[in-house]
Amino acid sequence: MTGDLWTIAEVAAHLGIKPASARGTLSRWGIRPQERHIDDHGRAHSLYNPAEVRAAKTTRPGRGRRTDLHTHHSPQQATQPPRGPEGNTP
Predict the structure, then answer these.
(1) Which of 34, 62, 67, 71 is at 20 to 30 A from 3, Cα to Cα?
(2) Distance between CA atoms of residues 14 and 84, nearest Å
(3) In this structure, is the dihedral angle defined by the CA atoms of residues 74, 80, 82 and 87, taken in order, positive or negative?
C-alpha cells in the first residue's frame, strides 16, 4: 500500500475487480482522488482515501440484490382478489 492513500490497483484489489472497472465504480460512487502522483516516467496516478473506499464498499447493496423490493406488499398485490385452482376468482 502506498502510504496513507491507495493507488487504483490497490483499490481494485480491495474491491476484487479490475483496475479499469475500479475507476468506473469509484466514479459512480462519487469518490474523487485525494491527490495525484507523478511517477518517474511522467505518468500521473490518482491516489484514493482507503477509508472512503471501505465505507462505500460496505454500503453497496451487493451482487444480485433487488433494491426495488421491500418487505411490505405493494398496493397492487393487496387489491387483487384471490384466485382459484384454475386461475378463476372463486
Answers:
(1) 62
(2) 52
(3) negative
Nearest Cα residue to 16 out of 53, 70, 48: 53
How many structural domains does the chain have? 1
Mean pLDDT rounded to a whole number for the chain: 82
CATH code (residue 19): 1.10.1660
Question: Is the pTM higher than 0.70?
Answer: no
Structural domain containing residue 20: 1-60
Amino acid at the residue 59: T
The amino acid at 5? L
Would you say the C-alpha torsion 59, 64, 9, 37 has a positive or negative sign? negative
User: What is the pairing mode between strands 44-47 and 35-38?
Assistant: antiparallel
Take residue 90 and report the three cell numbers written for it: 372463486
